[in-house]
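[audit] Reproducing an earlier prediction to check determinism. Same input, same settings, fresh worker. If the tokens differ from the archived copy the diff job will pick it up downstream; this log only records the rerun itself.
[audit] input (365 residues):
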Amino acid sequence: MKAFIIFLSYSNFEVSKLDQKLVKAEDLFDFCVDILGRIGVNEENARIVADNLVMANLRGVDSHGVARLPTYVERVLRGYIDPQGPIEIVKEHGATALIDAHNNFGQVAAMHAVKLVAEKIKKLGVSCVGVRNANHFGMAAYYVLKLAEKGLIGIALSNGPPAIAPWGGKKPMLGTNPLCIGFPMGKGDAIILDMAISTVARGKIRLAALKGEKIPEGWAFDENGNPTTDPVAALKGTLAPIGGPKGYGLALALDLLCGLVMGSSYLQNVKALDDFSGPSGTGFFIEAIDVEAFIPYREYEEKIAEYVKAVKDCPKREGVNEIFLPGEIEKREMERRTKVGVPLDSEVLESLKKLAERFDVKAPF
């Protein structure tokens, strides 16, 4: 079945139509679990990774969805992700803990961190857990949403492979370093800010390169420091940080926290997904805050409802139909795609079909 898919922007309902095939989310999930099982990932962990990938697609974050599966598989087969790596708590003190992922999947290690902060917070009101020696953890919002479901404010941070140059430089040294923070709103809803420190996530440029499309101006620079709309040149060069020197400073701070402080890799030592010269060495930081450590939860719910209404009712600029909260567009897209299916481009479908043939798994597309 073919369909024209609508992508939404925060400013208004701008649309971009792409000819794509729709696949049911549950079928994609089962396919990912089957493929991961064929390369030695146990069912529990395979379901965590698959759920993270498919939820990214459902929320419209296709750059972090099932398009990543072939690379994950290749990294496992080459020994750069160890699905048997123990998730070990190497240090624990009060509200904090440090996990060594021993090169297991980032999603698996991050979910251990989520469970640990949720357990610690029952007595302490706030908790943070670091993770070292891990891999790409997929969509950061996934973990914050898990905490929001428990009525907790959540923060998920990670460093990443070099993509941004120090302000004024032209050599990539800092990652796009995702930052996600979520505020529960009750009834399973939440305000979710999930952003890269670059003007755009590196994954979106990878996706553009895969599809042979140009990228907008202002996203990246080539290896000589010149602005470029070529995604391949951008991947060889550097990405533009948000807010210029402010974004550079934030990227540096996150690399220090998630990399250096956690005892993980940092600066150029973090390996990209498509860098098969060694393990990634990614570091994370997961934090949870219990609202009731500060104000009663019922009062919080009442006030955040008023807050949201005030923001949504803000007078709009000409041509703007609606003001969106962070994460609201993704939530609506998830509701829509859950009903109609996940759109997959022909390039992504082809890469998944090759996996199906390689591991003798029935493809649902």
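[audit] rerun output stored. Observation attached for the diff report: The chain has three domains: 16-78+330-364, 87-198+241-296, 300-329.
[audit] end
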